[in-house]
């Protein structure tokens, strides 16, 4: 499976999804330094701009060396500011699957933005990347993410008990797993 490094730009009602760029580092730092926005993530909150730059370089841009897409910046159409990211990760080439992860600045929560982004990126997974199945996971405490996933049409698969060790809490968490198959979209 060979992916095009060029991902389609997607225009939605309130945001544009485009490939994450180096110039997004300042906006990424701004959203990533908020402990509430990053509460359930494995990274953050950022303490310095350098941490945001390093993450873009070594997490997102490094994906090209594995022939995987970098990820999308979620850009507010009104301000041209990057307000979040949504990306593909954990590709299983044998099973032709991937996972999607996302973060959105809490200033933009509860506006339907992430649900719209997830629906759009799921279409990219099936139509552009030709995936057969897309998976999304969240620790059970993250009920906001659960609402986004279900509104986007994903189906609950299983509760995986104590399967994720969270570096922030230093304990194992239960994880909900969801999926969507190409023929379900």
Automatic annotation (TrEMBL):
<feature type="domain" description="N-acetyltransferase">
    <location>
        <begin position="15"/>
        <end position="181"/>
    </location>
</feature>
<dbReference type="InterPro" id="IPR016181">
    <property type="entry name" value="Acyl_CoA_acyltransferase"/>
</dbReference>
<dbReference type="InterPro" id="IPR051531">
    <property type="entry name" value="N-acetyltransferase"/>
</dbReference>
<dbReference type="InterPro" id="IPR000182">
    <property type="entry name" value="GNAT_dom"/>
</dbReference>
<dbReference type="Pfam" id="PF13302">
    <property type="entry name" value="Acetyltransf_3"/>
</dbReference>
<keyword id="KW-0808">Transferase</keyword>
<keyword id="KW-0012">Acyltransferase</keyword>
<comment type="similarity">
    <text>Belongs to the acetyltransferase family. RimJ subfamily.</text>
</comment>
<protein>
    <submittedName>
        <fullName>GNAT family N-acetyltransferase</fullName>
    </submittedName>
</protein>
């Amino acid at each position: 499976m060979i992916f095009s490094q060029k991902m389609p730009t997607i225009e939605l009602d309130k945001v544009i999804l485009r490939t994450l760029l180096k110039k997004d580092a300042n906006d990424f730092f701004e959203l990533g330094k908020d402990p509430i926005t990053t509460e359930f993530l494995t990274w953050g909150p950022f303490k310095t701009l350098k941490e945001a730059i390093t993450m873009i370089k070594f997490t997102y841009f490094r994906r090209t060396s594995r022939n995987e897409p970098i990820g999308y910046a979620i850009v507010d159409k009104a301000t041209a500011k990057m307000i979040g990211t949504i990306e593909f990760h954990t590709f299983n080439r044998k099973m032709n699957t991937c996972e999607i992860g996302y973060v959105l600045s809490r200033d933009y929560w509860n506006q339907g933005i992430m649900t719209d982004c997830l629906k759009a990126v799921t279409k990219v997974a099936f139509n552009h990347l030709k995936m057969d199945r897309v998976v999304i996971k969240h620790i059970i405490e993250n009920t906001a993410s659960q609402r986004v996933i279900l509104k986007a049409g994903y189906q609950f698969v299983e509760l995986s008990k104590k399967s994720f060790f969270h570096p922030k809490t230093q304990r194992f968490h239960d994880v909900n797993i969801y999926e969507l198959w190409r023929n379900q979209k």
